[in-house]
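SAMPLE LOG
Freezer: B-3
Tube label: C17
Construct: single chain, 608 aa
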Amino acid sequence: MRPDGTGWTPPERPGSETPPPRQLRRILTLFRPYRGRLGVVGLLVAASAVVSVISPFLLRAVLDTAIPQGRTGLLSLLVLGMITAAVVNSIFGVVQTLLSTTVGQRVMHDLRTAVYAHLQRMSLAFFTRTRTGEVQSRIANDIGGMQSTVTSTATSLVSNFTSVVASVVAMLALDWRLTVVSLLLLPLFVWISRRVGGERKKITTERQKQLALMSSAVQESLSVSGILLGRTMGRSDSLSREFTEQSDRLADLEVRSSMAGRWRMNAIQIVMAAMPALIYWAAGLAQAGGAPIVSVGTLVAFVSLQQGLFRPTISLLSTGVQVQTSLALFQRIFEYLDLPVEIAEPARPVHLERITGEVRFEGVDFRYDPAQERPTLAGIELKVPAGGSLAVVGETGSGKTTLSYLVPRLYDVTGGRVTIDGTDVRELSFETLSRAVGVVSQETYLFHASVADNLRFAKPDATDEELVAAAGAAQIHDMIAGLPDGYDTMVGERGYRFSGGEKQRLALARTILRNPPVLILDEATSALDNRTELAVQQAIDALAVGRTTITVAHRLSTIRSADQIVVLDRGEVVELGTHDQLVEAGGRYAALLRREGSAPEPSGAGHG
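STRUCTURE (predicted):
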């Protein structure tokens, strides 16, 4: 997290922002899978533009020929043609809207799923330095903010551009001189709209960052943990004031975004609204031999086409502003999609059918940051035979948890390698790795779902009998069966309806369902009272039978029967042996035992 509390943001480097032309090309590639439907939309747009310019010509014939000459039959046909054109145009518009909205929503879906899938591939390090609310804001607010642009802007651009071209061609066919007068100010209008778009793009970037801050604040302070902390620390009023300030800043940015360039855009609309009067004035002044140079029918038809020109022109200018604004949102999404995947599946992954569970650390080095002066782990050499147990102990910050997380590839080594059954874990397929290694951590995570759904997260096709068997092995079945809804009981937000020991045993039951040959226990009982620890430890002992077990220990009384105990100090192995051997050596392990409050004693006298 950054010092200002805003969490992770992409590093700002000179020239790192994607240039608009390149970004526009990248946006267009999002629509490539739907180019067939877009082609149909384009045809409908072109047809609609052609139909829309027919009516002014029919109107000219009504005013200059049918009415003056009293030709009622022709008048009826012309009016029928105008009505038919309106009906056909309306039908084209409905079909066009259906297709363009469908394409837009599919693009939105593709973006959401691409960002989510990409984030699923990020290493644990990314999520330790990024606020959850920031991630949620990118997926919900940023992509949601692009919805109108993606679903309608592309079609609007094509439709309005086609209408403008068709209107200009028709106006030139009626009278080129009046057309020139009508188009004199268009370059100025385009320049103004581009300036307004640039202003709104900058404001939109600030607004989305503020939305991300608010999302983070809501996610953190209105969670169960956040409410408990806020109330017990007497900070509820303070949190409310902070949220009010953030909301006030967001409201100010929304107003600025809405008003940016508003007067200039309104000035454009005023000028365009006044143009018909100017055309009438110009036509009235232009005389040839005392008579007007254009007929009344031509003049009315021309003004009708001019209105048909100005409406899409204003829409085009407004759409241009929206596109520039949306570029800020696309940039934020592309920043996530461009994040390098630190832990990727190899191009030719190794699939292991039968896994015995031998784990080796061969010259393992690890740094969280390449610029880190001292490695978190250095020169780790360890072997855990299949079915054996290794306990990892040491002072806080010695690298215990980091060492255990290298086995399931939550992090990748920066030197040496970690192997399972002789194969580097970086060469294994993700499916093999997840099947091989199960992790039970100190902080148990449960979804806001039923007990059964939480257990089936490990094995979606598990039968009810398998759930009961797993819960029984974790010594939690009787408690679940005693609940009013049994296995259908909702666990609540993050499982707060259950005690720490019950959540831990539910996590164990979930891991039992997965049935991994290698088990990682990351201080799984450190936060429990002695009685609950005993029950959970018994469940762990039952789970560990026949499995390779690596235990990160906080309470040393729980690991005295381990086959090997390794003592880490500042990322290096300083002692390795059984409990009795290390007690007899009288070194670092014995000192840790004394500090814990129990005198060093043989493993037979301790808790197994």
